[in-house]
Amino acid sequence: MRTQQNVPLSAVRVEDGFWSNIQTLVRDVVLPYQADILEDKSVVTEKSHAVENFRIAAREAEGEFQGMVFQDSDVAKWLEAASYALALQPDEALNAHIDEIIRLIDKAQQADGYVNTYFTVKAPDKKWTNLRDNHELYCLGHMIEAGVAHTLATNKHNLLDIVCRAADMVCRRFGPGKTRGVPGHEEIELALLRLYRVTGKQDYLDTARYFIEERGKQPSFFEEERARHAYDLRATNEEYHQSHLPVREQTEAVGHSVRAMYLYAAMADLSAETGDASLYEACRALLDNILESKMYVTGGLGSTFHGEAFTPAYDLPNDTAYAETCASIGMCFFARRMLEIKPEGRVADLLERQLFNNILAGIQLDGTRFFYVNPLEVIPSISGAAPAHKHVQPQRPGWHACACCPPNLSRLILSLGRYAWGSGDRTIYAHLWLGGSAQFSVAGRVDVACESQYPWNGAVCYTISPAMEGARFCLAIHLPSCCRNAYWLLNGEVFEPDMKDGYAYIDRAWHKGDTVKIISELPVLRLYSNLAVPRNAGLTCLQRGPVIFCLEECDNSAPLAALRLPPDAEIGVEKIHDGALKGMTALTWEGVREISDTGLYSERHPIAYPAKVKAIPYFAWGNREAGEMRVWVRE
Amino acid sequence: MRTQQNVPLSAVRVEDGFWSNIQTLVRDVVLPYQADILEDKSVVTEKSHAVENFRIAAREAEGEFQGMVFQDSDVAKWLEAASYALALQPDEALNAHIDEIIRLIDKAQQADGYVNTYFTVKAPDKKWTNLRDNHELYCLGHMIEAGVAHTLATNKHNLLDIVCRAADMVCRRFGPGKTRGVPGHEEIELALLRLYRVTGKQDYLDTARYFIEERGKQPSFFEEERARHAYDLRATNEEYHQSHLPVREQTEAVGHSVRAMYLYAAMADLSAETGDASLYEACRALLDNILESKMYVTGGLGSTFHGEAFTPAYDLPNDTAYAETCASIGMCFFARRMLEIKPEGRVADLLERQLFNNILAGIQLDGTRFFYVNPLEVIPSISGAAPAHKHVQPQRPGWHACACCPPNLSRLILSLGRYAWGSGDRTIYAHLWLGGSAQFSVAGRVDVACESQYPWNGAVCYTISPAMEGARFCLAIHLPSCCRNAYWLLNGEVFEPDMKDGYAYIDRAWHKGDTVKIISELPVLRLYSNLAVPRNAGLTCLQRGPVIFCLEECDNSAPLAALRLPPDAEIGVEKIHDGALKGMTALTWEGVREISDTGLYSERHPIAYPAKVKAIPYFAWGNREAGEMRVWVRE
Fold first, then answer.
1. Cβ-contact A138, A183 below 8 angstroms
2. What backbone torsions phi and psi does residue B395 show, to the nearest 5 degrees?
3. Shortest CB distance from A537 goes to which of B309, B561, B597?
């Protein structure tokens, strides 16, 4: 069912003045910053202890395990991200740094392949006793992903061997006719599928399928497990773990949003791998459900702090949003796998919505602070202060006790090339307009260069250089739905490509230096919510290109709720020339500021005054003085 | 400092076709309904066991204590309410029923005066060990209020003697030079002040003052107490208990809203009693703070479920509001005491806002279901379902595990006469337009009759009948701020009364049958929130007379957020002729319904269609089919 493969990262170069800068930031600033934290060389909140746990498990240090039960996953995600950095650019020091950590992991691994410092150091007798809460398979999944990324980047097998031994142990233990088990936090499933693809070992595919298909079956595995604990564990909220129904019967996105995304990504991957149509249909139903009723306009997923979870349809409060950075990252995993099965413009648009908004908002422009929660409305006296808003921080903290998001950002951003391109039998897919270049094997080697100033500019140029002159193959380019009045030029001549589901398919004999240019407008779009979302009635949200805009107090003044955008206001597009947001685009208009009576309630209608209003990209909020922020603007 | 006394309930008759109907409902339906629940003759959720606990404590039954640690207070509040019912109208059966419960309490009382079934039956060794959490003084306070109400209604002393013995024990135990103590839930303070007024015993005043003044002093009593428990109790949230500062230094309403109201009521009462100006100033500052930034337009107090508490200024979410019925009842206690010190129109208006809106919404029109939480916006698929909305029920339940609100409603409604009238040295105060009659002793006996169809009609007529022809005294009548273009007529002649702070002062020699008539309009008012309340920007709320209106789905259709009230729409006032709301006033207008695209987000502006819209009194919502409800309407 899969129409295309990932392009190896080493075959992709990002050079667009946007993502390339962010990749450089992640490589040069974020990875070392995160390594220092994981190795306790720098302490932001409390010691991470994550690498020290491995050192203790390897018997190279004395001490007790410290941190979350899933602390190992921080190391694994960093290793995966660092491996992507190596794939992008050789770096001997980083290579050696990675190898040293792998050496510790190797020494910490037990004879049967088991590797998890919490259980090795702290609770050896509790292994595999609580799959629901204890994240053993989750941590291992992340280690497997790191092993796969590392071997693809370096051709070395030192981490891959470790994770294969661990995966083999899991395959020996769990499956039909073996021990029953379902992980509380999905991750092992998609990891085993990745490992299957680099090793070809059927056991990995089978065990991934087992974990996916066993989930939600009756009787509940989690309640069986709980009974073994004499019910000392709290009762299972099956929806939280997406185990309320067998996965093929799930049609509504529920529960912990990151877990949901990791599961759906694995379901899509399995259906791609095996051609399982009913599993793919479940994925489509879940995706539709999210797109139709459960996603913030910024891409944010999960409306509530309670269980970091999805809530009922259309419950999308802006000020108490959860919209975890990791959930949006997980959505990229899911969307990419859906695109590999069937290229669809709406799914590529979704990928853009995630990347340019909720995900990028997760990281400070200087690379050293991170949002876990991404609200769409912040009022400093309330956000972080009122009990229902305690999780909503008005500024990015330097680290988090539960540090899942920062290394997740690193691994996603450094592997962006895998999301931009796809390689089919005879088709090259450009899912994202990502400036730089990529190499493919379709009708022989083909080099594709891409010039782009996206997201600020709607022009893009692809230059195709087949090794074989006149090779016939298809180039499929996604036209983002935010681009309007697009002209397509083939070698400078206007043409009408075959469009299908938001992709242009250009199937021809290609010659070295052939160009496909798209010149489109990126008008400012006013978006309106479905009126079933009660909070957004009467409000509009501005988007230009894939970028959602917001108001900040430092450009306007508080309260931002007092500002109105007249229906007929012309919205100017301006380049920002200085300050932290230099080079970005801002929107400005002649709007209205209302001023109300001083009392709490008044019969006097607020009085309207003209006011110049400025909006900036949502992803860049919180990079200047602290203050109010607001995405949805009164019209 | 006090300018006036309460009027004895037996001197007041309510006959206005509005409150008189509600009093009848409470007497004939609610009191028996509640008695059956307290005596386990009917079970709505789980057994109340409240009277049975007394029976066990009195050794007339076997068994264990069941219910909340403050279960006794349900019985006390019912006794207080039933005593008010007796004051309004003799009832031998009720009288006997009350006496039987008093007999049990008497038998349950211990030799030293201690009376609390939780500690007598379940935890005798834990008495007085945890004043912060265990509600001993709270329960006793309610019993004292019942004792005072009972003796005033019946002239009997059987309950008064019990509570005096208990109060004496408290006075012996706590105070300067005795054991240090501050109650976690305020109530004993205002109760001891009431007891002081009927008994004249100085100890009660002194101990009330002690509890008020000791609160918030350093070192923290609650933390001292916690240290005695080897810190096994959770740390104290001093704001939750209003113990973060000495009471005279408090200027912001914080913490549990019911506790706050009971404390402020006691502070006002004490300052009235003793002429303590600094305490009165603190009361004014706290009242101002609430009126300026912390009250829903319905009178609701406390924005959050978490700690049932006040939150930062202007944080007034409509859909996750807490706005506990008891907090509004507590505000009536506070407001009445403030009015007794200084009659002010805004305080009398506040009393009306509470009574006609958040309080009355607490009780189903049939008297058998009750709201604890009073939201200003309900969407059934979200309210009660989404985690942040779990506390928001779209329909009134029959009872509550924490059953504080239902009997609190009974005692307030049956004692309404005490809020309507005040009796000064030579002035009769009419704080509320409450149809019926009242007797006063100013310049001899004076009978005042009041004809009113408030809140539906802005005309009221007071007929004054002094026993002494030509007696000189002053009649002070509050002119509600919702009344406009008022004409004042004295014996049919238009006159201009001396107005001060919202009260008309009519000082003259009165003759039997003199009438003061006020003919005013009750226009439909559009209220606007301060723009610092982010949720209400662009919205308006309709008020007519003291009644706030809301939209319900059964009159309009969902989503209610799709409805707009045009700025120039004429709003019709209609009488409802049938159904559950028969006799009430509805508002109707030709408005606009927007219909949005089917997707979650769209570039297309929702399309506007004309729509007939109907609003009903907020207090009557939830009495027909379940559905959406909304107070703040888009303009």
1. yes
2. -140, 155
3. B561
In A65-91, which ranges are continuous DSSP H helix? 72-88
Q: What is the pTM of this model?
A: 0.94
Select the residue of A305, A314, A381 nearest B313 (Cβ to Cβ). Answer: A381
- The DSSP H or E segment spanning B588 is strand B585-595
Interchain CB distance below 8 Å, B538 and A541: no
A550 phi, psi to nearest 5 deg: -145, 165
pLDDT value of position A447: 97
**Alpha-carbon distance values, B503 to A138, B291, B428, B431, B449 (Å):** 70, 19, 12, 8, 18
Query: Scanning every residue of chain B, which has its alpha carbon at the shortest distance from the alpha carbon of A322?
Result: B388
Residues in chain B within 8 Å Cβ distance of A313:
381
Q: What are phi and psi of A227, to 5 degrees?
A: -60, -35
Residue A179 β-bridge partners: A174
Ramachandran angles phi, psi of A41, nearest 5°: -80, -25
- In chain B, the N- to C-terminal Cα span, in Å, equals 46
CB B193 within 8 A of CB B171: no
Asked if the bond preceding A312 is cis, omega within 30° of 0, the reply is no
Q: Specify the amino acid at residue A616.
A: I
**Predicted pLDDT at A79:** 98
State the complex-level ipTM: 0.95
pLDDT, mean of residues A431-453: 96
Give catalytic residues of B, as residue numbers: 308, 404
Q: Between residues 108 and 137 of chain B, which touch chain A (CB distance below 8 Å)?
A: none
**What pLDDT, on a 0 to 100 scale, did the predictor assign at position B196?**
98
**Closest chain B C-alpha to A102 CA, distance in angstroms:** 42
Measured between beta carbons, the chain B residues lying within 8 angstroms of A532 are 559, 596
**Nearest-angstrom CA–CA distance, A482 and A239:** 35
Rounded to the nearest 10 degrees, the angle between the axes of helix A50-57 and helix A72-88 is: 100
B528 sits in which H/E element: strand B524-529
User: Shortest CA distance to B50 belongs to which of B113, B117, B106, B95?
Assistant: B117
> Residues A605-634: pLDDT tens digits?
999 999 999 999 999 999 999 999 999 999
Give the residue from chain B lying closest to A538, CA to CA: B634
d(CA A320, CA B382): 14
Partner residue facing B386 (CB), from A315, A527, A598: A315
Alpha-carbon Rg for chain A, nearest whole angstrom, is: 25
Of the candidates A528, A534, A606, the beta carbon closest to that of B596 is on A528
> Is A46 in contact with A29 (CB distance < 8 Å)?
no
Rounded CA separation B53/B32 (Å): 19
Cα three-residue angle A465-A468-A474, rounded to 5 degrees: 65
Does position A406 have pLDDT exceeding 90, yes or no?
A: no
Residue A277's pLDDT band (cuts 50, 70, 90): very high
For residues B229-255, b (16+ Cβ closer than 10 Å) or e, as one string?
Answer: eeeebeebebbbbbbbbebbebebbbb
- State the catalytic residues of A: 308, 404
Predicted local confidence at residue A404, as pLDDT: 78
How much is the pLDDT for A6? Answer: 86
Tell me what pLDDT residue A443 has.
Answer: 86
Rounded average pLDDT per 10-residue block, chain B, 635 residues: 89 95 96 94 88 97 95 97 95 97 98 97 96 97 98 97 98 97 98 97 98 98 95 95 98 98 98 97 98 98 95 96 97 98 98 98 93 94 88 84 84 96 96 97 95 96 97 98 98 98 98 98 98 95 98 96 96 97 97 94 97 98 96 96
- Percent of chain A surpassing pLDDT 70: 100
Q: Is B423 helix (H, G, I), strand (E, B) or coil?
A: strand
In degrees and rounded to multiples of 5, residue A50 shows phi and psi of -65, -45
Q: Does the beta carbon of A292 lie under 8 angstroms from any beta carbon of chain B?
A: yes
Question: Cβ of B309 under 8 Å from any chain A Cβ?
Answer: yes
